[in-house]
């Protein structure tokens, strides 16, 4: 029964993920779905911003959303299961396939708390470009402390697991 429940949860998570992807695509597609199937060199670009917490990643991502319509690219949030940045091998294969073959979302800026994935290991010739923002470790720790203690303005009502006593 336990395995069956896990299987049903997995199916539910995948259905929710597909629904979220459709919603995001509808929100962030500039001129509606693209009909072309071949992309030129400039349009066949994917940038993956594998966000490091407390390094101004929300601010940086908001800039990407603000500029996507004007500059004709798509922004997509990569949401991993339970915010675990490490993907299983099966999920890695699916992710590589999706990133490389999803022409309607190119050029694209994908962001999320995900680990680096070497696309070359999967035989991909046109690999995505990875970018990141780093921060002084002490400043990052101080930012994390205040984040846990006082929250943020982005989702003020969210109660975080590690928040603890605000005193």
Please explain how this structure is put together.
Belongs to the sulfotransferase 3 family. It holds the Pfam family Sulfotransfer_2. The chain has a 4-stranded parallel beta sheet. The longest helix is centred in the N-terminal third of the chain and has 27 residues, at 2-28. The model has no long low-confidence stretch (mean pLDDT 78). 41% of the residues lie in helices and 10% in strands. The protein has helices spanning 2-28, 57-71, 89-101, 137-150; strands at residues 46-50, 74-77, 108-112, 129-131. With 167 residues, it is an alpha/beta fold. The N and C termini lie far apart (44 Å).
**SS class:** alpha/beta
- Average pLDDT number: 78
Quaternary state reads single chain
Q: Return the CATH architecture of the domain at 46-150.
A: 3-Layer(aba) Sandwich
Main pleated-sheet profile:
4 strands, parallel
- Assess the beta-strand content as a share of residues: 5-15%
The gist of it:
It holds the Pfam family Sulfotransfer_2. This protein has 167 residues and is an alpha/beta fold.
What descriptors fit this protein?
167 residues; alpha/beta; Rossmann fold; 4-stranded parallel sheet; 4 strands; signal-anchor; signal; Sulfotransferase; Heparan_SO4_2-O-STrfase; P-loop_NTPase
List the helices and strands and how they pair.
Elements (H helix, E strand, L loop, with lengths): L1 H27 L17 E5 L6 H15 L2 E4 L11 H13 L6 E5 L16 E3 L5 H14 L17
Parallel strand pairs: 1-3, 1-4, 2-3
């Amino acid at each position: 029964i336990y395995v069956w429940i896990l299987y049903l949860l997995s199916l539910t998570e995948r259905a929710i993920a597909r629904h979220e992807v459709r919603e995001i695509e509808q929100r962030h597609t500039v001129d509606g779905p693209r009909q072309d199937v071949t992309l030129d060199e400039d349009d066949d670009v994917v940038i993956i911003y594998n966000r490091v917490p407390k390094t101004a990643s929300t601010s940086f991502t908001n800039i990407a959303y603000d500029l996507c319509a004007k500059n004709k690219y798509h922004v997509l949030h990569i949401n991993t299961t339970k915010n675990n940045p490490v993907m299983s091998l099966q999920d890695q294969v699916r992710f590589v396939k999706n990133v490389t073959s999803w022409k309607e979302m190119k050029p694209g800026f994908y962001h999320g708390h995900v680990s680096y994935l070497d696309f070359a290991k999967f035989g991909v010739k046109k690999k995505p470009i990875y970018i990141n923002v780093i921060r002084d470790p002490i400043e990052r720790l101080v930012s994390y402390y205040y984040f846990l203690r006082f929250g943020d303005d982005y989702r003020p009502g969210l109660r975080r697991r590690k928040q603890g006593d605000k005193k």
